[in-house]
Amino acid sequence: MNHEIIIFTPIFAGLIGLIVFTILKKRKRSAKSIYKLIDDLEKKYIY
Asked: How large a percentage of the chain has pLDDT more than 90?
C-alpha cells in the first residue's frame, strides 16, 4: 500500500502542476475540456 502512495503522489502533483501551467498559458481554453482531461486521467490512474 505504501509503494502505491509513493508512486502516485509525484504523478498527481505533477499532473496538478501541468494543469495549472496549461491554464496560465492558455487562459482562453475552456474549463470544461480541462475538467474532462482531469476526469480521464483519474479514471486511468485510480480505477
From this structure: 0
State how many domains the chain has.
1
Task: Please report, for residues 6, 7, 34, the alpha-carbon distance to residue 28 in angstroms, rounded to integers and kept in the order given.
Answer: 35, 33, 11
Range of the domain at 17: 2-46
> pTM, whole model, 2 decimals?
0.40
Packed helices 2-25 and 31-46: angle between N→C axes, nearest 10 degrees: 170
Write the CB contacts of 5 (distance below 8 Å, at least 6 apart in sequence): none
- All cell numbers assigned to 41: 486521467
Four-residue CA torsion sign, 8, 11, 12, 13: positive
